[in-house]
Every structure is written in structure tokens, then in C-alpha cells.
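User: Hey, quick favor. My workstation is busy. Could you predict this chain's structure for me?
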Amino acid sequence: MTEKTFRKRCNLAFSLIGAEPLYFNDGDSREDDAFEDDGSLHVRRNGLRACFDVSNGQSLDAAKQNAMTRLVMEALGLAKRDQPLPGRVAVEVPEEKEYGDEDCCPHCGKEY
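Assistant: No problem, here it is.
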């Protein structure tokens, strides 16, 4: 993918998630890759890295962040619908906690 094509796809992806484009030139020595870091999705192609705020300033939970990541990855042609996201870009969604007796007040039954 050429830099021009990559920027064009990135700009489409940025518009899908309502974020401003943010690019960094990492140099040609870096491999093409994609990874998540503190609520941002970084995608690097040919030394140009696009940074997408998929967490809305870290205000979205993991499931919503992964949904935003999916929009970006599909717009860039790096993920297919109905297939899992690559491991380095997805945020682990915590399992819902099941409350037991030890998670409740023994006097009133209120959950901690």
C-alpha cells in the first residue's frame, strides 16, 4: 500500500470514529504492524504511523474500544467482518464479576 493510499484510508477511518488525523514518521526501518497502547490504535505502513484514539480519551470501556478498533481496521483493509481482531490490537474485555456470599455484606446483603 502506498503512503498516499494509506493516508486516504486512514482519513476515512478517522472520519468513521470522529477523530482528528495524527501521523508520525517512524522511518523506513520499522516493520508494518498494528498495535493497541493505552486507548490508542497505532497502525504503521512504510514507516508512517497513524494513531487513532479509539477510546475517546480512555472514556470507553473495552468492548466499545474494540468496536471502534474494528471500524478502523476494516476501513484500512486489515480486518474482515465476522473474524476476530488481531491479538495486538484488541483490548481484553473483562468478564462480568459473579458475586458470591463473600462479596456481600453479611448484615444487609448489599454487594461490595
